[in-house]
Design goal:
By secondary structure, the protein is an alpha+beta fold. It folds into two domains: 81 residues, SH3 type barrels; 30 residues. The protein is built from four helices and five strands, in the order βββββαααα. Strands 4-3-2-1-5 form a five-stranded antiparallel β-sheet. A hairpin with an 8-residue loop joins strand 1 and strand 2. The longest helix has 28 residues.
């Protein structure tokens, strides 16, 4: 009586050494870092050696409530690794480019761009949306008329 059961791994993002996090609060808001050591159930030690100078995050303690776990993990990162090894593995895994190509980062960049539009630019967006809506409605009417 052997049953056929497929066991699937969970898609949970675990708090683990090597997990890349997005900082949500504090002076480094919006920057990426990786978990280097787990201090306790509420705090972790992070380090963010980004390849772009303006996106680096110095090693410090961070409350998990101020971080969002991303799907990216740096595999085989030793516990409490120094900034040098973390930087090498960060570059080897190409975390910055993976993040930039993710839909999450693209949506964030789009909303930032929208937030910083001037009044005239918002007006131009409104006009373009109206034009596209008109063209779509015209095409739909043509299809309905032929059917």
């Amino acid at each position: 009586m052997a049953s056929n059961i497929d066991i699937k791994a969970t898609s949970w993002k675990l708090v683990e050494v090597g997990r890349v996090v997005l900082i949500r609060r504090g002076p480094y808001t919006g920057k990426l870092a990786t978990i280097v050591e787990i201090i306790d159930h509420k705090r972790v030690l992070i380090d963010g050696p980004s390849t772009q100078e303006e996106k680096t995050v110095p090693r410090h303690s961070l409350a998990l409530s101020h971080a969002t776990l991303t799907p990216f993990v740096i595999p085989k990162l030793p516990r409490a690794a120094g900034t040098g090894p973390v930087r090498k593995l960060w570059e080897k895994e190409d975390i910055d480019n993976k993040w930039a190509s993710s839909t999450w980062a693209k949506k964030t960049a789009q909303s930032e761009r929208r937030k910083n539009l001037t009044d005239f630019e918002r007006f131009k967006v409104l006009r373009l949306k109206k034009q596209t809506r008109y063209e779509v409605q015209k095409a739909n009417a043509k299809i309905r008329a032929s059917a």
